[in-house]
């Protein structure tokens, strides 16, 4: 619970914002007589002098949200009470400021075990896209029938693409359905630390009690698992114990099981008993949807062209995408801007862009053409020549797309660089590949792999 001081600050800010945004008469009538009784959990309890003023206050959520973020740094909701409508219980509760005596809401059930779960990550706030569709479906299936459908579930993919998010979502869902479920989320590093501590302190029994009696083990980033013999052995035994009693195991990694050199084959082969599924980078639509959701909790206004601009800047990592949005928000706030325009966004992201441009500054059309030809095993002369079979025309379109995308070269100039083609041909190629980038995973992967070479 927040200290009184913070509550006062919060309320002062609410009234100040109100004074700035509404007329004096309305302020004196609706705002002035209101009192902040308490802030419990993330809810501000506000007492009005009359029930008829509730409707007006219901429309003032901006004041509360803004002040809440400024003072508490998080989303604050609010509950309205009116002097002329209060029951005795409510009045007592508000005056005592004691949520303990008369809890308004039933306490959330918690697992008897320290689960390590983060409630923030759930299925509802996970945006589905072509890059994560199957993995999301598998995760939902696992949460629905743990230990049944896909066991273990092995999720792999690059950094910041939602692997950890999905793990927590599975755990939270299972915990909601079954509040007594024994669940543990742990990074591989912490599993190793727990084990090392247990052996050092002679507490192996308690370690095994914890880990081998779980209903669900979520083990994150197994590529960081230590390759020490003892730990690996313990992991192997834990895995077997859990698997044998039908407990669900979910693992993540940045690579496929076969590439995990830190783990033994006998363990890696067990990973494939269940389902191995990957997450790839979000396409443009998914990035937009993620930005839309994340920007909703901001009290600034993000027009869609601004979000589109941000989505165009960061294309391979959701964590960075969130970081970019935060950065833009920060700069907008610092400049007192409430409707965030592209100009502000581009200013905020300039330093980010500089970093990527640095690595692209040596890039030339020729280099892109060479890499593409190389990637698809065709010759440079075919790539820019007149031949038109699919095996050549497709890489050519990819190369044109990349030149346009990465170098911003004009359409006619690209046409020239590709054997003197017309600019409409280039435009067509660009459109073809842009469309495919939205829903064709193979094309996304190709482009990703080629880009990584630069
Ligand atoms: P990973 O474990 O794959 O490195 P995380 O699960 O930590 O990635 O995701 C990084 C951030 O991006 C988190 O804040 C997560 O909530 C967010 N995120 C990733 N994918 C999505 C998605 N599809 N929808 C919403 N948020 C996402
Ligand atoms: Mg992670």
Kindly describe this structure.
The protein has 4 domains: 4-95, GMP Synthetase, Chain A, domain 3, CATH 3.30.300.180; 133-279, 3-Layer(aba) Sandwich (Rossmann fold), CATH 3.40.50.300; 284-359, Orthogonal Bundle (Helicase, Ruva Protein, domain 3); 365-451, Orthogonal Bundle (Chromosomal Replication Initiator Protein Dnaa, Chain: A). It has helices at 4-21, 24-31, 54-58, 61-72, 88-96, 133-144, 163-177, 188-200, 204-212, 229-244, 265-271, 284-296, 304-313, 318-334, 342-360, 365-375, 380-384, 390-407, 411-417, 423-439, 441-452, and strands at residues 35-40, 43-48, 77-82, 153-157, 183-187, 216-220, 248-253, 275-279. It has 454 residues and is α/β, with parallel strands linked by helices. Helix 6 (133-144) runs parallel beside helix 7, helix 14 (318-334) crosses helix 15 (342-360) and helix 19 packs across helix 20 (423-439). Adenosine-5'-diphosphate binds next to helix 7 and helix 14.
């Amino acid at each position: 619970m927040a200290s009184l001081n913070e509550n006062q600050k919060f309320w002062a800010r609410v009234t100040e914002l109100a004074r700035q945004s509404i007329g004096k008469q309305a302020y004196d009538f609706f705002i002035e007589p209101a009192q902040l009784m308490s802030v419990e959990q993330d809810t501000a309890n506000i007492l009005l002098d009359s029930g008829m003023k509730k409707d007006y206050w219901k429309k003032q959520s901006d004041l509360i949200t803004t002040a809440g973020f400024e003072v508490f740094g998080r989303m604050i909701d609010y509950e309205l009470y009116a002097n002329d409508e209060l029951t005795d219980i409510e009045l007592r509760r508000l005056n005592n400021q004691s949520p303990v005596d008369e809890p308004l809401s039933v306490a959330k059930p918690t697992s008897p075990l320290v689960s390590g779960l983060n409630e923030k990550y759930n299925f509802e706030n996970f945006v589905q896209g072509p890059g994560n569709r199957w993995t999301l479906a598998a995760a939902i299936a696992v949460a629905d029938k743990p230990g049944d459908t896909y066991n273990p579930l092995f999720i792999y993919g690059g950094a910041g693409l939602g692997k950890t998010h999905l793990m927590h979502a599975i755990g939270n869902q299972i915990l909601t359905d079954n509040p007594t479920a024994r669940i543990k989320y742990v990074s591989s590093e912490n599993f190793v630390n727990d084990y090392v501590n247990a052996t050092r302190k002679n507490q192996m029994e308690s370690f095994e009690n914890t880990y081998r009696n779980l209903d669900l083990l979520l083990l994150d980033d197994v590529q960081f698992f230590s390759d020490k013999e003892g730990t690996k052995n313990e992991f192997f035994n834990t895995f077997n114990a859990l698997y044998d009693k039908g407990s669900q195991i979910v693992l993540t990694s940045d690579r496929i099981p076969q590439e995990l050199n830190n783990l033994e084959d006998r363990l890696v082969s067990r990973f494939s008993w269940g389902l191995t599924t990957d997450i790839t980078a979000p396409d443009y639509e998914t990035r937009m949807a993620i930005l839309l959701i994340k920007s909703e909790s901001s009290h600034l206004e993000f027009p869609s062209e601004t979000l589109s601009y941000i989505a165009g800047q960061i294309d391979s990592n959701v964590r960075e995408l969130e970081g970019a949005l935060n950065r833009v928000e920060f700069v907008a706030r610092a400049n007192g801007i409430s409707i965030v325009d592209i100009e502000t966004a581009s200013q905020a992201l300039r330093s980010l862009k500089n970093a990527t441009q640095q690595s692209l500054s040596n890039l030339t059309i020729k280099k892109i053409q060479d890499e593409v030809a190389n990637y698809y095993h065709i010759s440079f002369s075919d790539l820019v020549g007149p031949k038109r079979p699919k095996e050549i025309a497709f890489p050519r379109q990819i190369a044109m797309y990349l030149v346009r995308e990465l170098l911003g070269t004009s359409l006619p100039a690209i046409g020239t660089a590709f054997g003197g083609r017309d600019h409409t041909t280039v435009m067509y190629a660009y459109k073809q590949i842009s469309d495919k980038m939205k829903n064709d995973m193979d094309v996304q992967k190709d482009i990703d792999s080629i880009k990584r070479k630069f």
